Amino acid sequence: MSVPVYSLDSFDLISCEGSEAKSFLQSLLSNDVGQLDQPGSLQWTALLSPQGRVQAVMLLIHLDPEHYLLAVPFRRGTVILEQLRRFVLRRKLALRIDSGQHLLGSMAGAEAIAGALALQPPLADGRSLHLADGANRYPAADANWHRADLHSRIPWLPEAAADRHLAHALGLDLLGAISLKKGCYPGQEIVARTHYLGRSKRHLALLRSAANDSGLAAGRQIRDHDDQLAGESIGGLSDPAGTLLLAVLSDDRRLGQLAAIGADGRRIPVELVEPA
Predict the structure, then answer these.
(1) Domain that holds residue 23
(2) Is 109 exposed, middle or buried (0-12, 13-18, 19+ CB in 10 A)?
(3) Residue 32, number of CB atoms within 10 A of its CB
(4) Residue 214 pLDDT class (50, 70, 90 cuts)
(5) What is the pTM of this model?
């Protein structure tokens, strides 16, 4: 039986190319770009504000020593591109949206896709990512792919959830998306302070509701049994079986009965989904 392959067409690809591309990205992104040394190698990374709040969670792809791609979810490439361009100044590089290539996802690990570059390493749950150019011949990612993202606690940030949470609250340390050893980058001081002083009081949680409610999307409040604010959702998926929500919750509010506040103000009971 063939393994499903999807076009991850909700991602924009930003090309960063030039003799100073590596140093430019190293100065702005949360991870150590120097760890990428082979064509097709990739890493989790993020763009943070100076206050340490996460603007976007992305994938950085190494094509050659002077060419990198940033995969930006939710078609937010233009927004992130404009933020990056503010720091170019006289650096020898070019930034643009690359519409000639696209990201593919396979539900299997190292299985090859004809005409596509396999990106390494695969995702932690065994799914693989590939880069292809030319016409796209695969269907868009379906609920199975998005459900796997949620169960893997990948904090893709739509616009409604951008610039609201610190890196540790989104689990970027567990994802391997932040470096504590490289030089400075925007928000680095907050990342280091949170890590070494253990001051993160909010963490990611996966929640489940029996209700099939598409209104439970990013930015919805999560409240506890005393109707105190416990956190907020950063994304979700609804299907006939119910709703899954990825949320940032306060550590002291995640126990007991929780409810998501729907778009109409209703309290919708949710429960924690323990990691597999």
Answers:
(1) 5-151
(2) middle
(3) 17
(4) low
(5) 0.94
